[in-house]
């Protein structure tokens, strides 16, 4: 599993199990991404509180820990019956790793949502071309 947060060119942050999609003609160049179990994710400070700020000194020791933010998840493209979404490469600004706590919350959400199984990129490509 490769859980990443994808920032789309529209400014959405989408957490998902991310895979590159290539073609048979050029398997070294990505033409898109497959987002398995995608959820929009965002932080919001608790009412009347500021978001959490972690400040470290030069030695990497935690100096200040200011208030916990709430992490929210919402299904991305909620009306899709397919939980594997293909996205063209030009729709993605960046994909990045996140904190283990965020990944744990995401994994619990996916499991609670029925433990959706994921398919490979080739299986998705085959099923979409047959239609």
Low-confidence stretches: 117-131
Counted beta strands: 8
Q: Which CATH class of one domain applies here?
A: Mainly Beta
The CATH architecture category of one domain equals Roll
How would you spell out the order of helices and strands? EEEEEEEEHH
What would the CATH topology of one domain be? SH3 type barrels
How many separate helices?
A: 2
Mean pLDDT: 79
Helix content: 10-25%
DSSP strand (E) fraction? 35-45%
| Form type | globular
Largest sheet: 6 strands, antiparallel
The first-to-last residue Cα distance is 28 Å
The Rg value, from CA coordinates, equals: 17 Å
Structural class: alpha+beta
What do these coordinates show?
The chain is α+β, with helices and mostly antiparallel strands and 131 residues long. It has helices at 100-112, 121-130; strands spanning 3-8, 13-22, 30-45, 53-56, 62-66, 69-75, 84-88, 92-96. The longest helix is centred in the C-terminal third of the chain and has 13 residues, at 100-112. The two termini are 28 Å apart.
